[in-house]
């Protein structure tokens, strides 16, 4: 909290059992505690869900990691014949990140996005209207949300169902993730949740504006899911426990896409201070920050969500908590 959080919630699972903690307030100007089973926008942790579905389709022979974007989405991406699904998954496609074309806080024009519905086609067009940031696909890591918007479209082409429907059918329902939803264009967070805020410039001042309710289509397959710390830990335990993809593909997920890199197929690779390597994902969903990591043997997980006040930076405090959870 001292590092810059309005509220925080965490769950740690290890051989000793499950520990849950919460701190701060669920909304500014109140004394209401953050619910321990809070739902929140998980941002880019969504990418691990999308990657998992993609690899399930690979296992079924419906997709191949060497398939090109051009094969599945002909004419959509210039140079798509040189960009494979593997390059999308590990962020080595070199494609421009469409998020860099949008207005973001503290610019007040950002608030016009709150209820706007974005289509994947719009977001992809914004990306490919810019030159690639890397000219030779597959050689260099360059994180781009555009990659996962494309994967969402490819999943739909391969299955006839949206990526959200496939995530629900293949992950959410089988694992009974009752606090997890793929909201689409719904602006609400169902169930107990803290409020999230964004800084907005108002004249010479910057004020925090409640941005809990918003249309998440701007994040799409790159970051729209809502979940809980318990559900995220259950998801990663199932993934690394071999319940979602076979061991051969799990090995591919956990292998860095570039020499010395720290990103596999939908997973960050994180080295703790005590030398334990953990895998998972993190990052913000505008008004919410979330982190979720697991050991490769699936025996320990940590999930954390924070509603930041945007005046401080809770990253170091979260890193310290992750280290304490895995190294203690």
UniProtKB/TrEMBL annotation:
Its EC number is 3.4.16.4. InterPro entries: AmpC-like, Beta-lactam-related, Beta-lactam/transpept-like. Residues 7-319 form the Beta-lactamase-related domain. It is an enzyme of class 3 (hydrolase). It comes from the Bacteria. GO terms for molecular function: serine-type D-Ala-D-Ala carboxypeptidase activity. This is D-alanyl-D-alanine carboxypeptidase. It comes from Actinopolymorpha rutila. The lineage of its organism: Bacteria, Bacillati, Actinomycetota, Actinomycetes, Propionibacteriales.
């Amino acid at each position: 909290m001292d590092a810059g959080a309005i509220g925080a919630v965490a769950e740690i699972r290890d051989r000793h059992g499950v520990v849950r903690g919460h701190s701060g307030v669920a909304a500014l100007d109140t004394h209401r505690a953050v619910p321990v089973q809070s739902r929140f926008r998980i941002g880019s942790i969504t990418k691990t869900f999308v990657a998992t579905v993609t690899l399930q389709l690979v296992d079924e022979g419906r997709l191949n990691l060497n398939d090109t974007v051009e094969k599945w989405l002909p004419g959509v991406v210039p140079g798509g014949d040189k960009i494979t699904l593997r390059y999308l998954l590990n962020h080595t496609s070199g494609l421009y990140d469409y998020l860099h074309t949008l207005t973001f806080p503290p610019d007040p024009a950002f608030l016009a996005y709150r209820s706007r519905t974005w289509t994947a086609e719009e977001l992809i067009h914004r990306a490919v209207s810019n030159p690639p940031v890397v000219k030779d696909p597959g050689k260099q890591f360059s994180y781009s949300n555009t990659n996962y918007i494309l994967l969402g479209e490819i999943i739909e082409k391969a299955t006839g169902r949206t990526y959200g429907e496939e995530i629900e059918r293949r992950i959410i329902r089988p694992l009974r993730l009752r606090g997890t939803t793929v909201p689409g264009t719904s602006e609400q967070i169902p169930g107990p949740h803290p409020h999230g805020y964004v800084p907005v410039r108002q004249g010479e001042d910057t004020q925090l504006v409640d941005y809990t309710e918003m249309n998440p289509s701007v994040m799409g397959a790159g970051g729209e899911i809502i979940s809980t710390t318990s559900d995220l830990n259950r998801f990663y335990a199932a993934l690394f426990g071999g319940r979602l993809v076979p061991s051969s593909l799990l090995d591919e997920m956990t292998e860095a896409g570039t020499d010395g890199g720290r990103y596999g197929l939908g997973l960050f690779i994180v080295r703790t201070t005590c030398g334990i390597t953990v895998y998972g994902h993190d990052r913000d969903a505008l008004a919410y920050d979330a982190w979720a990591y697991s050991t490769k043997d699936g025996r320990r997980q940590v999930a954390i969500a924070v509603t930041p006040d945007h005046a401080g930076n809770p990253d170091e405090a979260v890193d310290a908590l992750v280290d304490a959870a895995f190294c203690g």
